[in-house]
Amino acid sequence: MIAYVLKTLWRHRTRTLLTVTGAAVAMFVFCFVGSVQEGLHRLTNGADADRSLIVFQENRFCPTSSRLPEDYSRKIKEVPGVRDVMPIQVWTNNCRASLDIVVFNGADPEQIQRSRPIKLTSGDWSQFKSQRDAAIVGRNVAQRRGLKTGDQFSIGEISVKVAGVFESTVPSEENLIYTSLAFLQYTRGLDAAGLVTQHEVMLTDDAEPDRVAAEIDEMLRSGSVATKTRRKGAFQASTLSDLVDLIGFAHWLGYACVGLVLSLVATTTVMSVQDRIKEYAVLQTIGVRPARAMRLVLAESTLLCLVGGVAGTMLALAALGIGGFAIGAEGATIAFRPSLGLAVSGTIVSLIVGVAAGLAPAIQAATVPIVNSLRQA
Amino acid sequence: MALVELRGVSKSFSKGDETITPLDNVDMDIESGEFVSLMGPSGTGKSTLLNLVSGIDRVDSGTITVAGTEVTKLSRSRLADWRAANLGYIFQTHNLIPVLTAYENVELPTLLLKLSSAQRRQRVELALEAVGLSDRADHYPRQLSGGQEQRVGIARAIVAHPKVVVADEPTGSLDTETSEQVQVLLQRLNKELDITMLIVTHDTDVAQIASRQLVLDRGKFLEKGDEGSMSSQPQPTPHLFQQ
């Protein structure tokens, strides 16, 4: 009977093609929205989100406005539960939400290599460590900006030479550019000698993050600049708070896409069944059970939805993989990455929506009044 | 016991404020292997009776038993199973599935039975051969003439080896020459395959090929014919009939 289903879809190929295309576009958007939500979730709930702290200047938000003494790191190290401290100078081309945010993190190259979950895919660490204006570039930035090892590029007052391109298990890392701390501190316009934007605190395994954070702030209260210390995940969520609201709203867009596919496929299937009411009456006269007639319609709607949905999902994953998209604000970035989870959820949603879309027309086909339908011209 | 038994069958319809009773306490028996034609003016319940025997419509009262099964008691699903195994239906307007080839249309009923693919193929090929359309197996309905379409419809009705074949105006949409060919075919199927047939027709020529003619008027059988005269001689026997 599958031949009957396939041939029926082929009979109205324009309608089939339009429905499949509509489902594909909607599932494309659904996956894109899903990838943004996944990115935010990874950023705020990742492995290091709770085991690292960010020390930032109190009541400051944009990285350009936070100016902490670099030597705070020495004092922070003395707090029990602190394993390591990395002073970081942050520079970004845009403090507002942007789809093409470029974020430089200046830190000690040795510390970067030691503490960051990154691996060079091209270039080498020695050049990065030895050359003052050398930078290693995250894979997504390199992809977006077309950068490769050996390139020289400038943005604003900063001009660097690409010493390597790295990939990371933490997707947001791949939207960063690392330079040495001194290079960024002495960049014209920053005027940040001896100052950093933030201190990243790595905790010991048994440390209680909130207690350590409170102790750091308490200890530095007597310093020249008051601080606000938070878990890295909470800090990033707070930094991206405007975007978080927007992304929270965007998940409704995802649901809207699912609704769109549902109504599109349901409409097509209803039309298809209504066009063929007599055919279903004939099939049941021949001996096709109502439940089987129902399954034929469900197969039709599920097939339409699966083909469109899976195509849209695959296209979205390909676009996410190739595009290296990210959205960021105030120096924090959310990476849009393809994932197995997105592929599976896209397929499952397509399957469920396909079945749901076919239910009403399937019942119509199964309960068709045979005699009246056979009388139809 | 007759193959088809109707006892006290009544059926009414509402049409606006009016109630129409095409069948009123009707009794009828059809013996195995019989060829019965049913005639009568329009709206007298011929097709209704056919539909009730086929189980695609429900009686208001009375019982219908076909081959020992009281079809009036079966659920919609069980009726579908019963039809798949026991009944062939020939429509006036062929009602072939347009996206399927002649072969696939004939194959449809066999897909509902527990048959191996080889058995299915054999039955479909024999059925197509019986109606003289082996060479049109790969044609779609739109590529066939009206007469050929009806022959495919007949092949579809007999392919599952049903106990009863019912036909609702099987020649109603055909020209005279094609109608005669179909009549001959139906007659042969009855005689040589011993298929019990009940056909509804307005055409007296078609009715005459039946061994018994019944006339239905205002819900009752008015007249019962005896052995009907044959209007055509059987044609040479094709492969199917030698099985």
From TrEMBL, chain A:
ABC3 transporter permease C-terminal domain residues: 257-369
Species assigned in the record: Aporhodopirellula aestuarii
Protein name (Swiss-Prot/TrEMBL): ABC transporter permease
InterPro entries per the UniProt record, alphabetical: ABC-4/HrtB_transporter, ABC3_permease_C, MacB_PCD
TM segment ranges: 16-36, 252-273, 302-328, 348-371
Record-linked PANTHER family: ABC TRANSPORTER PERMEASE (PTHR43738:SF3), ABC TRANSPORTER, MEMBRANE PROTEIN (PTHR43738)
UniProt domain MacB-like periplasmic core: residue ranges: 16-218
UniProt membrane topology term: Multi-pass membrane protein
Subcellular location(s) per record: Cell membrane
Lineage top rank: taxon: Bacteria
Keyword annotations of the record: Cell membrane, Membrane, Transmembrane, Transmembrane helix
From TrEMBL, chain B:
Spans traversing the lipid bilayer: none
Species this protein is from: Aporhodopirellula aestuarii
Designated name of the protein: ABC transporter ATP-binding protein
Keyword Nucleotide-binding: yes
Domain of life of the source: Bacteria
Keyword ATP-binding on entry: yes
Species lineage: Bacteria, Pseudomonadati, Planctomycetota, Planctomycetia, Pirellulales
Polar residues: compositionally biased ranges: 229-243
Keywords of the record: ATP-binding, Nucleotide-binding, Transport
Stretches the record annotates as Disordered: 224-243
Domain ABC transporter, residue spans: 4-243
